[in-house]
Amino acid sequence: MEDNSDMELSILYGRRFGRIAVNMGFVNLDQVQEALAEQLTCNCFTRLRPRKLIGEILFEKGWMNLSQIEKVLEEIA
């Protein structure tokens, strides 16, 4: 079972990642909101972590490439 603090951290990180990605022009707000919704509803019990990362979802949907994700992560760091 997932700890509430893990879920809260996931939400905060996802929102921050999404805000930066939108500000950099890589995705739009609707795409980020859809990815966040998917992140919260996906219980991936076959994975090592309970939720997908927001960047992972945006990449899988073809909305961001790896270079863009790296740039967002650099901004966060």
What brief labels describe this structure?
77 residues, mainly alpha
The SS-based structural class is: mainly alpha
Integer tally of domains: 1
Q: Give the number of helices.
A: 4
Main beta-sheet annotation? none
Distance between the termini: 29 Å
Label the overall shape: globular
| Record field, number of beta strands | 0
Helix content: 55-70%
- CA-based gyration radius: 12 Å
In terms of per-residue confidence, which ranges show pLDDT below 50 for 5 or more consecutive residues? Answer: none
How much β-strand is present in the residues? under 5%
Mean pLDDT: 85
Question: Secondary-structure element order, as H and E?
Answer: HHHH
What features would you describe in this structure?
With 77 residues, the protein is mainly α. The protein has one domain. It has helices at residues 4-23, 29-41, 54-60, 66-76. The N and C termini lie far apart (29 Å). The model has no long low-confidence stretch (mean pLDDT 85).
